[in-house]
Amino acid sequence: MTAYVELPLESAHRIINHGPVVLLCTKNPEGSYNLAPIAWCCPVQKSPPQLLVVVGKRHKSYSNVFAAKEFIIAVPHAEQAEMLRQTGSVSGSECDKFAHFDINHIVGQKVDAHIPAGCVGYIECQLNKNFDTDKTDIIVGQAVAAAVNSEAFDQRLLVEKSAGKTLHHLGERVFVTPDDKVLQ
Ligand SMILES: Cc1cc2nc3c(=O)[nH]c(=O)nc-3n(C[C@H](O)[C@H](O)[C@H](O)COP(=O)(O)O)c2cc1C
Question: DSSP string spanning 93-106?
Fold first, then answer.
């Protein structure tokens, strides 16, 4: 029989938290661009396609989303773990992270935001609605464009190939990448 140990409530999310960490890419009202790692991201519905991100209200990304009413969710590759750490360590209200961390970028097709070069894929979104959850907001976006590395996707994400290795946050500085084993 499985032996269970009590899980502190503040850690409970960590057993469902290993979806890919994403980067919330936004435009600053001042004209430069910002990005921040977000572990709490989830699809909402397939048609019309929507997703949600949970964003702290004190983050620069938060005010940017409401100013521009659009954002891009980029899925970083496993080799970009250091960039995730860097961009999560400082606020875009203190520095231009793209310039400060020397991050090369591509541009969105429909949304005015910068996507770090080398990401596995990205989803461009228009702000649809938000739900106030106290210190954070649940921000729901409607996808208006999406693209993925052609070597990383064939009907599904090819996590068994090096091009499809995403990053999954287990807490603190610990990340994991998907295993090669795919059950069918
Ligand atoms: C791996 C990782 C996951 C994170 N997940 C979230 C998240 O889900 N929601 C959130 O509001 N902040 C999250 N953060 C914190 C923000 O990314 C961080 O505070 C960032 O500096 C905010 O930048 P900004 O002020 O430019 O928006 C995460 C940070 C890291 C490193």
Answer: TT--HHHHTT--EE
For a ligand 1 pocket test, name from 42, 61, 169 the mutation site with the most ligand atoms within 8 angstroms of its C-beta: 61
In this structure, are residues 138 and 54 in contact, taking their beta carbons and an 8 Å threshold? yes
Kindly report each contact of residues 7-14 with a partner whose C-beta sits within 8 Å and lies 24 or more positions away, as own/partner: 11/171, 13/40, 14/170, 14/171
Ligand 1 atom closest to 92 (CA): 26
Name the residue of 21, 51, 59 to mutate for ligand 1: max ligand atoms within 8 A of Cβ.
Answer: 59
Q: Into which CATH architecture does domain 19-176 fall?
A: Roll (2.30)
Q: Tell me the per-residue pLDDT of 94-126, one tens digit each, with 9 for 90 and over.
A: 999 999 999 999 999 999 999 999 999 999 999
